[in-house]
Amino acid sequence: MHLLPHSLAVSCLLSLAAQEVFAAPSPAPTPLPRTVPLLRRSKPQLTEAERFEWLRGQRDSLKSKYGAGGANVKRASGLNLLTNQNADSSFYGSIAAGTPPISYNVILDTGSSDLWLAANDGLSASQSDGIPTFDANASSTFTDLNTPFSISYGSGAARGNLGQDSVQFAGFEVSDQVFGVVTQISNNLLTSPVSGLMGLGFKSISSSGATPLWQALAESSGTLDQPLMAFQLTRFVDVQNAQVLEPGGTFNLGAVNTSLYTGDIDYQPIPEGQEGYWIQELTGLTVNGQSVSLDAGSASYAAIDTGTTLVGGPADSIAALYAQIPGSEALTGDNAGYYTYPCDTNVTVTMKFGNSSIAWPISNADFLLMQVSGNSCVGGFFQLDTSGTSAPPWIIGDTFLKNVYSVFRASPAAVGFAQLSSTATSMNGQLGPAPSPTVGSVATVTGGS
């Protein structure tokens, strides 16, 4: 769910999906990788109609996010534990804002660049029920910038004003971070316990024009050990008894966590002049060993987007991919763009980027998005038309990212992938409590009856 021309599709799933980010750690005195634990929510039991509604919400929010179809502290590194919500639908971490610092859960989204929080004085009782909200009057360091702020998503919009205050994240603090204080929000845009969203893209695609927090830290000399951030995401999509919120993995800022991957990190540069989204050129795509033809150059640019659940791509490429899966069929009408295939078919997709020789595999568990009826399942790749927008042709979300250790490096600008370690993969499907914020007091929850 993200800003029209400037954000990547944050899987905001109508009334079914909630976007959330997770707990930020307290500042560490030593330069160890600080980690943010991610949390995930359990998979709801849905009717066939609800499943198709969810699919439409995913597709439409991605289109809208990309405009398709319509500091600080000493040199160090930090972490934030993530929360996995709704069986891999979204991953959230936590920040702390204001003085005294209050903690909030936010979606961590490499597909957009704005930070915003729901305010305590603008949401209706039904909208704010169970959602911690930001109270500007409770912070002694908050400044109202008297500048309107708005952002649109496929499933709604958020509006308010820009403010400036101290924000802590993954063990770091920016004392004058600009962010949106949202007083108007569409129904179902937020789901408890998520209070907002933190964009982790570059400033050039920021709706507000503000420098993203991560970029302010990266550009502050001597603050981070390395100008990068990294994600390890868990998988619960195939766990029937998963809870609404589960441990979601780890976010690191300023350093990588060597216990979560093996071998080398395969960095591929962002194409020259494309720093905005985290762009990679998709240069190889196979399904069950059969190659899918791809256009060269910018026609195969892809945004690597932690805020998107699925993988969207050009119609001809997606059709060619499913043509290699016996029994697959294109859905029509309201569900156009998606494909079904026999659930008992094992599907292995690989993706290759830039000049790399490595073909990264996507597990069958991640490709199989959901069963809609009988032996009919929907795949995690769907058709997306971004022509006429500033968005790239491909949007690559968590369907792929759960299968790799992903690194986003600011300088030199690149995206890197590495093979997950046994330590990382052992977290998949391991039920447990959601991580708790370790910075700031827990925000007050307001809401209706």
From TrEMBL:
One Gene Ontology molecular-function label: aspartic-type endopeptidase activity
Spans annotated as Disordered: 428-449
The UniProt record lists the keyword Signal: yes
Region forming the signal peptide: 1-23
Gene3D superfamilies: Acid Proteases
Source domain of life: Eukaryota
Active site annotation, chain numbering: D109, D305
GO biological process: proteolysis
Keywords tagged on the record: Aspartyl protease, Hydrolase, Protease, Signal
Keyword set includes Signal: yes
Domain Peptidase A1, first and last residues per copy: 91-418
CDD domains xref list: pepsin_like (cd05471)
PROSITE patterns reported for this sequence: ASP_PROTEASE, PEPTIDASE_A1
Listed InterPro entries: Aspartic_peptidase_A1, Aspartic_peptidase_AS, Pepsin-like_dom, PEPTIDASE_A1, Peptidase_aspartic_dom_sf
Compositional bias (Polar residues): 438-449
Record-stated family: Belongs to the peptidase A1 family.
PANTHER family named in the record: BETA-SITE APP-CLEAVING ENZYME, ISOFORM A-RELATED (PTHR47966), PEPTIDASE A1 DOMAIN-CONTAINING PROTEIN (PTHR47966:SF6)
Name of this protein: Acid protease
